[in-house]
Amino acid sequence: MSTTETEEVTHLPKLKDTDSFPLWDFEIKILMCAKELINIVDGSGLLSDQGRDKENIRKWKMQDAKCQYYIVLLCIVYANTFHVTHCDCT
Q1: Taking CA atoms, which of 41, 70, 71, 72 is between 20 and 30 Å from 7?
Q2: Domain count, the chain
Q3: Which residues, in sequence order, are CB contacts of 35 under 8 Å at separation 6+?
Q4: Percentage helix, strand, coil, to 5, in the chain?
Q5: For residues 8 and 29, what is the distance between their CA atoms, to the nearest angstrom?
Q6: Is residue 88 in a domain?
Q7: What is the residue range of 29's domain?
Q8: In DSSP terms, which residues pair with 15 in a beta bridge?
Q9: What pTM does this model have?
């Protein structure tokens, strides 16, 4: 039986508040490295670096969407996390 991407991360800690941030930050960075997405998260691979190559732009946008998916999946959304849902990520 194969594991879905969602099932892979359900055991990871969710970001609840500032107290849970250090462990969450550590775990999310490991996840992004394992998924080969860390360049999107740490800013070492920017959309502007893709030039005009449509395939590279498409791949970067897909990686960015995956990062957003994992981040949202690993947050507990409360009213005070409004800033997470309204950040400019590209």
Answers
A1: 41
A2: 1
A3: 66, 70
A4: 60, 0, 40
A5: 15
A6: no
A7: 15-78
A8: 75
A9: 0.77
